[in-house]
Amino acid sequence: MCGIVGYIGKQEAYPILVKGLHRLEYRGYDSSGIALLNTAADLNIYKSKGRVADLETYCQGKDISGTIGIAHTRWATHGEPNHANAHPHYSQSEHIALIHNGIIENYVVLKESLKQKGYTFQSDTDTEVLVQLIEYIKTSDNVDISKAVQLALKQVIGAYAIALVEKGNPDLIIAARKSSPLVVGIGEDAFFLASDASPIIEYTKKVIYLDDEEIAIIHRNEQLKIISLGNIEKTPQITQLEMSLGALEKGGYAHFMLKEIFEQPRTLRDCMRGRINIDNNHIVLSGILDNKEKFLNARRILILACGTSWHAGLIGEYLFEEFCRIPVEVEYSSEFRYRHPVIYPDDVVIAISQSGETADTLAAIELAKKAGAFVYGICNVVGSSIPRNTDSGSYTHVGPEIGVASTKAFTAQVLVLIMMALCIGREKKTIPEKRFLQILSELDNIPNKIETILGLNDKIEDLSKIFTYAQNFIYLGRGYSYPVAIEGALKLKEISYIHAEGYPAAEMKHGPIALIDNEMPVVVIATNSTTYDKTISNIQEIKARKGRILAIVNKSDTKVRQMADYTIEIPETEECLDPLLSIIPLQLLSYHIAVKKGGDVDMPRNLAKSVTVE
Fold first, then answer.
1. How far apart are CA 457 and CA 334, in angstroms?
2. Are strands 225-228 and 214-219 parallel, antiparallel or unpaired?
3. pLDDT single digits (tens) 35-81
4. Contacts of 367 (CB under 8 A, 6+ apart)
5. DSSP alpha helices (H): ranges in 60-144?
6. Catalytic: 609?
7. 390: which residues sit within 8 A by CB, 6+ positions away?
8. What are phi and psi of 108, to 5 degrees?
9. Residue of 97, 94, 93, 119 whose CA lies nearest to 107
10. Do domains 251-444 and 454-614 have the same CATH topology?
């Protein structure tokens, strides 16, 4: 949610900041803005509703000089997307400009207090309240800007990542974070600031991830200084970035989403590398083996996640119960923390997040840790908040995922859960050795089988033309295919704006069957499984009501082909690995339908990639 960029150095700031905004636009794109301090120490703010390209147009002909600045691309929370609500926000005197990601929960109380002191407000945002509060404290307490920020943030309840500059102070940026990511890049005679490392990687690989309630005082001619809200100075811990600049480019693909779908053979190989040894017949997950007793003695496993990660967690439930014989509950992080959950000290909590910054999941982790549970994180972004706040975990190693609709992150999360279940099951001796070796051997074949499915891209693109008319879709699956059905439905609704719902196939007759007619496309995952014959019965129920069926089938299938209107063929695999294959044609189908409908595939309306607010 929202993207923050900052720069201070010897180069002109504007081109660096705008390029950074483009890199962060996946985090929000309702409006954007930039604040620059020029050589005369004048503070200029330029803002525009819409995409970063609209901001560039707005800035043409204006004074964009200066070697220090901050910039922001917004995903609206408080106040509709418009010029007034776009960031940066001025203080009342227009001496301070501030950008903010997060939500100030007590902004109404703070705003009323400031109004009584004579402050007026130009926007509907909680952010403007914070910049006014900082100015009030600076003036009334007669303190410098860094102390004013420190004192103001002590009054704030909520989440924030902020950056600010001050008129007449052309050598200083102040930044701070709590429950919202912020990273400082250390360059050659320059500092960079961003919500994640993507705007920084072009200039430096040395970064510092701020921790909660830390303030960075970034001075042009001095060492970076970090202090806590309690005024304790911290020693900056420099991390070396592993991502490459090429990973942030489209590489000849029309959209990041298509590129990321096609990257999955490679990303799954990367996820398995160093963890699966086919020759020696074993899986090495250090996060599991180093904490083996926690898993062997677990009363139950709680999986906490949101959105696509929650769907991956549902597959994890099937895996852990089948191979480890441990009871599993899969919870939406946003609901878990508010319903007074029962958490035992011998529970294992698995938290799943692509970004590692999902606010609801972070809050759920904190709740679980307070109850004494062991918390294991599955995450893609090295150094993000979830890896730093969990007891142990596994990275998915898929590289940056820019497309808002998650694709390669989902398959990698499922793969990590598969490896975890196999590793724990073998340690517990709840999976027969022969079965373990069969699955392990087949895992090695999965990337090649995905490449085979990707070879059907042109066929799926042609098929997608048939379905652009649809207003509604139903996706059906059973067993391991049920979570794939709801993930496939989510992909379609996210980027094509077609209403789609996923159901367990057997549940269709308990209500959704009322929707079936000859205008309703029904996608059925009908691969070979223990419930194959049951799925055929469900298809017959649909056909009896003239539903139009698109079936995902295996090459050996004969029965479903005769019943379905359209089929997409995928290779056969072990039933527990089938989600890694069956989701691929659903991702491609969603993508091509959205493109045919003229949608902005990488930046669908109302969505943002990293949900750092509740």
1. 36
2. antiparallel
3. 999 877 789 999 988 888 899 999 999 999 999 999 998 866 766 77
4. 336, 337, 341, 343
5. 107-116, 126-140
6. yes
7. 351, 365, 375, 376, 377
8. -65, -45
9. 119
10. yes
Architecture of domain 3-247: 4-Layer Sandwich (3.60)
Structure-block tokens of residue 314: 């549902």
pLDDT for position 150: 95
Measure the CA angle with vertex 510, ends 505 and 511; round to 5°.
105
Radius of gyration of the chain (CA): 25
The ranges assigned to domains in the chain are 3-247, 251-444, 454-614
Q: How far is it, in rounded angstroms, from Cα 502 to Cα 560?
A: 19
Q: Verify whether residue 178 is a known catalytic residue.
A: no
Please answer whether residues 90 and 39 qualify as being in contact, where contact means their C-beta atoms are separated by less than 8 angstroms: no
Return the amino acid letter for 601. Answer: V
Task: Please state which of the ranges 230-239, 291-300, 455-464 shows the lowest mean pLDDT.
Answer: 230-239
Give one DSSP letter per residue of 16-36, joined into a string.
HHHHHHHHHGGG--SEEEEEE
What's the rounded Cα separation, in Å, for the pair 367 and 534? 41
Q: Which stretches of 225-384 are assigned E, i.e. beta strand? A: 225-228, 233-234, 239-240, 276-277, 282-283, 301-305, 328-332, 348-353, 374-379
For the chain, the first-to-last Cα distance in angstroms comes to 10
The pLDDT, as a whole number, for residue 550 is 94
d(CA 102, CA 491): 26
CA distance 191 to 51: 25
For residue 88, the one-letter residue type is P
Dihedral, CA of residue 19, residue 22, residue 23 and residue 29, to nearest 10: 150
Structure tokens at 107: 């902004």
Query: What would the pLDDT profile of 582-612 be if each residue is shown by its tens digit?
Result: 999 999 999 999 999 988 888 877 665 555 4
From 2, 59, 271, 324, active-site residue:
2
Amino acid at 498: I
Superfamily of domain 454-614: Glucose-6-phosphate isomerase like protein; domain 1 (3.40.50.10490)
Query: CA 577, CA 422: separation in Å to the nearest integer?
Result: 12
- Burial annotation 576-590 (CB, 10 A radius, 16+ → b, else e): bbbbbbbbbbbbbbb
For residue 531 the two structure tokens come to 């419930």
What gap in Å lies between CA 548 and CA 144, rounded to an integer?
68
Angle formed at CA 361 by CA 358 and CA 364, multiple of 5 degrees: 150
Q: Which residues contact 468 (CB under 8 A, 6 or more apart)?
A: 593, 596, 597
Q: Does domain 251-444 have CATH number 3.40.50.10490?
A: yes
CA gap 102, 77 in Å, rounded: 9
Structure tokens at 403: 């497309």
Residue with tokens 């129920």: 541
Q: How far apart are CA 69 and CA 64, in angstroms?
A: 10
In sequence order, the 6+-apart residues with CB closer than 8 A to the CB of 434 are none
Determine the residue type at 309.
S
Going along 367-483, which residue ranges are E strands?
A: 374-379, 392-395, 472-477
Three-state DSSP class for 578?
A: helix
Residue 206's H or E segment, with its range, is: strand 206-209
